[in-house]
Write a structure and sequence with these properties.
The protein is an all-alpha fold. It contains four helices and no strands. The chain has helices at residues 5-28, 35-38, 59-83, 85-112. Helix 3 packs antiparallel against helix 4 (85-112). It starts with a helix and ends in a 7-residue tail after the last helix. The relative contact order is 0.07.
């Protein structure tokens, strides 16, 4: 149980700092509201109404999201592998080469489908 005390203390300090910052910002911060500040902001463009079921997204949006998820998962697996590279030996090297090859296939698919082109 003593091993978890520093983690709990750090979590409590982080949560306390976050709560303190939000409360102090609302107390001390300026409160000059106007219509422009209270309106929705979409990158400088006036908000446009959306259809009831939502708008259709282009396929490139999903390809970019897929590429992000693929490389995010790759990093999650590469860090522990790099830390224990010596202990895994040749087996770990072959398995990671297969994994990176599969990631390369997904990258090639996304590239071929035009997910990296911003028209």
């Amino acid at each position: 149980m003593n091993a978890y005390v520093p983690i709990l203390v750090l979590g409590a300090l982080g949560a306390g700092f976050a709560v303190f910052s939000v409360i102090m910002a609302s107390i001390i911060g300026p409160k000059r509201y106007n219509r422009a500040k209270l309106s929705a902001y979409e990158c400088g463009i006036e908000p446009t109404p959306q259809p009831a079921g939502g708008g259709r997204f282009p396929v490139k949006y999903y390809l970019t999201a897929m590429l992000f998820i693929i490389f995010d998962i790759e990093i999650v697996f590469l860090y522990p592998w790099a830390v224990h590279f010596d202990a895994l030996g040749m087996f770990g090297l072959v398995q990671m080469a297969i994994f990176v090859g599969l990631i390369g296939v997904a990258y090639a698919y996304d590239w071929r489908r035009g997910g990296l082109e911003w028209d």
